[in-house]
Specification:
With 223 residues, the chain is α/β, with parallel strands linked by helices. Helix content is 33%, strand content 21%. It has one domain. The model has no long low-confidence stretch (mean pLDDT 92).
Length: 223
């Protein structure tokens, strides 16, 4: 195992990076990069056959990688993700149908809330999972070309899952693995983050992958 830690902004580490039984590589960015660029550069530095994307606000109360790896034994699965719990122990809505402009508009009006998938102890195969914790096989991440760096923040995980689907893979939510998410919800109260959110949303809805998957699904429903 190896850990690749990116410091996107200057900070003092609260631990000694050399004090572990496995290598910890620390990269300090000269200037802040987006989610996609940071994980792509970490992947380029990595050497393992499995690559885990993990946000800094994720906590592991138990060992989750064995269960996630087990989900990836199904070669039709391209991404394995754990259940995501909040600090109060309630399951977060981290597995969803692909967003559409109509559903976004419905949410903005106060409707269309609630979980898209029921998780009842079995592996679930959602359209997409939140990018806070994802496990890939190395060859799958390479085949997809990594995250699209045109997304600075938000929707890069949705775009990744759309492109994964277009390549014939599935996304798996693995209930035997769970993590705790200490969410910041920055886009709810910070105009800069809200602007990134809206920009990424517009980019996604105008993107080739979204239009292609939408067309495929419309034609499949046609008589």
């Amino acid at each position: 195992m190896e850990v690749l830690l990116t410091l996107n902004l200057p900070e003092v580490l609260p631990f000694n990076a050399e004090g572990f039984s496995f290598p910890v590589f620390v990269r300090v960015n000269a200037a802040p990069k987006g989610f996609s660029a940071n994980h792509n550069q970490a992947f380029a530095r990595s050497s393992g056959q499995l690559f885990c994307v993990m946000n800094p606000d994720i906590r592991l109360d138990s060992e989750v990688f064995s269960a996630l790896h087990a989900c990836l034994q199904n070669l039709a699965v391209g991404i394995a993700a754990p259940l995501v719990m909040n600090e109060q122990g309630t399951m977060e809505d981290s597995a969803r149908h692909f967003p559409t402009p109509l559903k976004i508009f419905c949410k903005a009006l106060g409707g269309c809330w609630g979980s898209d998938y029921a998780v009842e102890g079995k592996t679930v195969f959602p359209d997409w999972v939140a990018g806070m914790c994802m496990l890939f096989r190395r060859e799958v991440f390479e085949k997809l070309g990594g995250f699209d760096e045109r997304y600075f923040l938000y929707y890069e995980d949705v775009d990744m899952c759309v492109r994964l689907r277009l390549q014939g893979y599935q996304v798996a939510l693995c209930p035997d693995a769970s993590v705790v998410h200490y969410a910041h919800r920055s886009s709810h109260r910070n105009l800069k983050y809200m602007r990134w959110h809206l920009t990424s949303m517009l980019r996604f809805f105008l993107s080739g992958p979204f239009l292609k998957i939408s067309w495929q699904r419309c034609t499949k429903r046609s008589p």
